[in-house]
Amino acid sequence: MTNPPFTPEPFHARTIRPVGLRALGGRRIKVYEITRRGERLRPFDFESGIRLAQIDIQRAPADAASPPVGFMILHQGAGWNYVVLGTWINENELATRIWRSPRESDEWHPAESRGSFCVWDLEVMWHERNTYVRHVLREDPNLGAYMGDWIEASAEPSP
After folding, report:
1. Taking the domains of the chain in order of start, what are their residue ranges?
2. Is the dihedral of CA 39, 45, 47, 48 positive or negative?
3. Of all residues in the chain, what percent carry a pLDDT higher than 70?
4. Bridge partners, 49 (sequence order)
5. Residue 54 φ then ψ, to 5°
6. Distance between CA 122 and CA 128 in Å, rounded?
7. pLDDT at residue 128 greater than cutoff 60
8. What's the per-residue H, E or C state across the chain?
9. Of the candidates 132, 145, 150, the residue with the CA atom closest to the CA atom of residue 18
């Protein structure tokens, strides 16, 4: 039995927009939105997912080896909404958790144990990794500089 040929949907850039800072569980979290071209994020659809992230982060407070910073991605995908939470722990590790909900639904659940990140989430994560190395993993860590260093990308064509 042969597998059908792999035919991916062509990649299209999505808008990545910094939203601002949020305090969660004693940490300062940078919040990003990711949307498809021509769409605006529907914040109401994400309230329950953010609440689940807040409950989760309060169960694991930052310790002396964990800087009290991280980031959250609110990703409005084609069929699903995602909340991706990344917190820095043990000095140089990124703890991640994902919650998801069918689009335009309030039925949020943790992603399966094999939860994954899409190429758009990885763009934010790569920026956050590089920003963390540049500003925090150095002899004179600067959490303020980390918190002020954002990625922003537009899916809209340039004029």
Report:
1. 15-147
2. negative
3. 95
4. none
5. -65, -45
6. 9
7. yes
8. CCCCCCCCCCCCCCEEEEEEEEEECCEEEEEEEEECCCCCCCHHHHHHHHHHHHHHHHHCCCCCCCCCEEEEEEEECCCEEEEEEEEEECCCEEEEEEEEEECCCCCCEECCCCCCCCHHHHHHHHHHHHHHHHHCCCCCCCHHHHHCCCCCECCCCCC
9. 150
The Cα 133–Cα 112 span in angstroms is 29
Give me 77's structure tokens: 């995908």
Encode 74-93: b = buried (16+ Cβ within 10 Å), e = exposed: bbbbeeebbbbbbbbbeeee
Whole-prediction pTM:
0.91
Round to whole Å and give the CA distance between 43 and 79. Answer: 16
